[in-house]
Design goal:
Blueprint lengths: L3 E5 L4 H12 L3 E8 L17 H14 L3 E5 L1 H17 L6 H20 L4 E3 L4 E4 L2 E4 L8 H4 L4 H5 L1 E2 L7 H10 L21 H9 L4 E4 L5 E5 L26 E6 L4 E5 L6 E11 L10 E6 L6 E9 L2 E10 L7 E6 L2 E11 L1
Helix pairs in contact: 1-2, 1-7, 3-4
Family: Belongs to the MnmA/TRMU family.
GO molecular function: ATP binding; tRNA binding; tRNA-uridine 2-sulfurtransferase activity
Catalytic activity: S-sulfanyl-L-cysteinyl-[protein] + uridine(34) in tRNA + AH2 + ATP = 2-thiouridine(34) in tRNA + L-cysteinyl-[protein] + A + AMP + diphosphate + H(+)
Length: 356
C-alpha cells in the first residue's frame, strides 16, 4: 500500500510542483492549504505565494491540475498565537525573531504534522528547497534558494515524517517543470515579505500593537545622541533610519549595537563594535548525524536566513550551547537561530540569547 502524504500547498510554484512530483511518484496524495488569517484581507494582498485569498485559489487550481483531493485547514487562531503574538512579544523583549522559522516549527511541522498523523497520513510534503536523505537534513542544490536554515529547528521525529521533493532542483528548473505541467503558478513571484504585515512596515505594525514609547539613543559612553519612539523599531546592526541629532566627528556611520527593553535604550556605535566572537544560545535541537556536543565540536554556523556561514567550535553545557567563532561576525541578534552545519548537512540549531 502506498504512503499517504499530505501536501502543504501555499499557492506558490514550489509547493505545487512538490505536490505534483510526489503524486506522480505513486504516493496517495491529498493537498491542503493553510488559512492563516481569519480575515485574509488584513494580511498581504496580491499573488505573492503565502496567506492571501489569491493563494488559496491558486492552490486549489493546482490541485485540480494534478488531480488530487484538496482541502483548506483553518489555522488562523494557532498562527496568530504562535507566530504573530510571538513576533510582537519577542520585539518587545528586545529580540529579533524570524517569523518564517517559527511558522515552520509551530504551524507546518507541529500543528499540521500532528493533525496529519492523527488522520492517518504517513508524512507531510512541502515545497521547501532542502534535501532530506535518510532522515538527515541537507542544503538544497540551489544555494540561492536554500531553506535548510529555517528548517533547522525541526526535531528528528518531525524530519522522519517530512518530504522535501525539490531539494535536488534549482528554482529555474522548478518553474520550467511547472510550465510543462500546465500549472498556472509557473511564473508567480516569490514571497519575500512577512506575510502578516500587509504593507511591509514592520515598525508601524509593532507601534500599533505596542504603542509609542519614547526613549534615548546613546553612544557607548552613554551620551544621548537622539530619541526613538520605541526600541522595538530597531534591530542589531541597523544603520539606516536612526535619525540622530549629533553626527560622528569622523563622519563614519553608526550602527545599532544593543537594545535594552527595560530601560528602553538603544545603543549605537561604530561597525567594529558589532564584532562578535562568542555566542550563547538556548533551546538546542540536535537533529543531524552527530549527537549532542558535550566536548568541543568543530563545525560551521549560520546566524541569519541567507546569512554568512562561519567556522566555529561548539559545546553543549548545562543545556546551553556555547559557540566560539573562528572569525568575528557582525549583526548577531538575540532571538535569531544559530543553525549548525557540517558542510551541507544540518547538525542542529539553538536560539541566540547573547553574544560578546
Amino acid at each position: 500500500m502506498s504512503l499517504r502524504v499530505l501536501a502543504a500547498m501555499s499557492g506558490g510554484v514550489d509547493s505545487a510542483v512538490a505536490a505534483a512530483r510526489i503524486a506522480e511518484a505513486g504516493y496517495d496524495v491529498t493537498g491542503v492549504h493553510l488559512a492563516l488569517s481569519s480575515n485574509p484581507k488584513s494580511y498581504r494582498t496580491g499573488a505573492r505565494g503565502c496567506c492571501t485569498l489569491e493563494d488559496s485559489r491558486d492552490a486549489r487550481r493546482a490541485a485540480d491540475v494534478i488531480g488530487i483531493p484538496f482541502y483548506v485547514w483553518d489555522m488562523a487562531e494557532r498562527f496568530h498565537r504562535d507566530v504573530v503574538e510571538d513576533f510582537v512579544s519577542e520585539y518587545a523583549a528586545g529580540r529579533t525573531p524570524n517569523p518564517c522559522l517559527r511558522c515552520n516549527e509551530k504551524i507546518k511541522f507541529e500543528a499540521v504534522l500532528d493533525r496529519a498523523l492523527a488522520l492517518g497520513f504517513d508524512a507531510v510534503a512541502t515545497g521547501h528547497h532542502a534535501r532530506l536523505e535518510d532522515g538527515v537534513l541537507r542544503r538544497s542544490v540551489d544555494a540561492g534558494k536554500d531553506q535548510s536554515y529555517v528548517l533547522g529547528v525541526l526535531t528528528r521525529d518531525q524530519l522522519s515524517h517530512a518530504i522535501f521533493p525539490l531539494g535536488g532542483s534549482t528554482k529555474a528548473q522548478v518553474r520550467e517543470e511547472a510550465a510543462a505541467r500546465g500549472l498556472t503558478v509557473a511564473d508567480k513571484p516569490d514571497s519575500h515579505d512577512i506575510c502578516f504585515i500587509a504593507d511591509g512596515d514592520t515598525r508601524g505594525f509593532l507601534a500599533e500593537r505596542l504603542g509609542a514609547e519614547r526613549g534615548p539613543i546613546v553612544d557607548e559612553t552613554g551620551a544621548v545622541l537622539g530619541t526613538h519612539e520605541g526600541a522595538y523599531g530597531y534591530t542589531i546592526g541597523q544603520r539606516k533610519g536612526l535619525r540622530l541629532d549629533r553626527p560622528t566627528s569622523d563622519g563614519r556611520p553608526r550602527y545599532v549595537l544593543s537594545i535594552e527593553p527595560v530601560s528602553n535604550t538603544v545603543t549605537v556605535g561604530p561597525r567594529e563594535s558589532l564584532a562578535v566572537r562568542a555566542i550563547v544560545a538556548e533551546r538546542p535541537i540536535f537533529n543531524g548525524p552527530v549527537g549532542e556536543p558535550h566536548e568541543p565540536l568543530a563545525c560551521q554556523v549560520q546566524l541569519r536566513a541567507h546569512g554568512e556561514v562561519y567556522g566555529c567550535r561548539v559545546q553543549l553545557s548545562g543545556g546551553v550551547l556555547h559557540i566560539a567563532l573562528d572569525s568575528p561576525a557582525t549583526g548577531v541578534a538575540a532571538g535569531q537561530a544559530a543553525v549548525l552545519y557540517s558542510g551541507d548537512t544540518v547538525l542542529g540549531s539553538a536560539t541566540i540569547t547573547s553574544s560578546s
